[in-house]
Amino acid sequence: ARGGRDHRRGRNQDVQVLIDPSRVLVLDLAMCDYSGAEMDGKVLSGAIASNAKFDNVQFTGGEMSRAKAVGSSFRNANLSSTNCYEVNFAGSDLRGVNFDNAILTNARFGKDKDGNWANLDGVNWEGALLSSSDAQRVCENPTVDEYGKAILGCR
């Protein structure tokens, strides 16, 4: 794009703006520790958050669609009303997470590359938005507790 004025020199001058598509910025939170943080309403969409810690985090009404959170820890985190569309939680510790009213469409709760399942013991699934096929994929995880199985409608 061309245009603009350079007022630093006191005279008009065309300014060239170049955008390099090979330099895409990505939010890299891998191995970071946000335990106990207040993150209500924050945006982590597309973030790489693998092997990060979010234990006891308050993240209501947040946005983390398409994030990669493989092998991360979210123990007792409050993710109510958070958009977790297509988040990959494979192998993550999600024990006690509150997903009340969260969007979980196409989110993944399976095994990481080392064969470790996401730990879903004690997760609150009530009010979570996921399709019946999404729920059945979650039901394949052996760590879903009996209450979770009832809420998800596991067969």
- The count of helical stretches stands at 2
Largest sheet: 2 strands, antiparallel
Distance between the termini: 57 Å
Task: Calculate Rg over CA atoms.
Answer: 20 Å
The chain-level structural class is little secondary structure
Outline the low-pLDDT stretches.
1-19
- Helix share of residues? under 10%
How would you sum up the global shape? globular
Number of strands: 2
**Element string (H = helix, E = strand):** EEHH
Average pLDDT, rounded to a whole number, is 88
- Order of strands across the biggest sheet? 1-2
Strand content: under 5%
Gist of the model:
The chain is largely without helices or strands and 155 residues long. 10% of the residues lie in helices and 3% in strands.
Walkthrough of the structure:
The chain is mostly loops. It is 10% helix and 3% strand. It is built from 2 helices and 2 strands. The chain has helices spanning 132-139, 146-152, and strands at 2-3, 15-16.
Question: Which helices and strands occur, and which strands form pairs?
Answer:
Blueprint: E1 2-3, E2 15-16, H1 132-139, H2 146-152
Antiparallel strand pairs: 1-2
